[in-house]
Amino acid sequence: MRIDCHDCAQFETQHCDDCLVTALLHPPDGVVEIDEELDPSLDALSGAGLIPVLRFRPREERDEVPGEPGTGRAEAG
Fold first, then answer.
1. How many CB atoms lie within 10 A of CB 34?
2. What is the pLDDT at residue 62?
């Protein structure tokens, strides 16, 4: 899974402080790749309350309005 915090709808909100990516990487400067093999381990740790859950939510894409910057560069992966 590829995560870019700048593409998160919750970027720079109170949810960042309680997100897995921020907790482990405080917050990252660029794209983070989480290996699928780590998912069960991360789920177990967050389920036990030892680390926060992943709170990444891709920004919704919308039609650009002239003079208004676009949103989201969400990348599935």
1. 17
2. 55
At 40-65, the pLDDT tens digits run 999 999 999 999 998 888 888 754 44
How many C-beta neighbours within 10 Å does residue 28 have?
13
Q: List CB contacts of 64: < 8 A, sequence separation 6 or more.
A: 70
- Can you tell me which residue has the tokens 């039609």? 63
Cβ proximity of 61 and 31 under 8 Å: no
Residue 4 tokens read as 């870019």
Whole-angstrom distance, CA of residue 63 vs CA of residue 47: 38
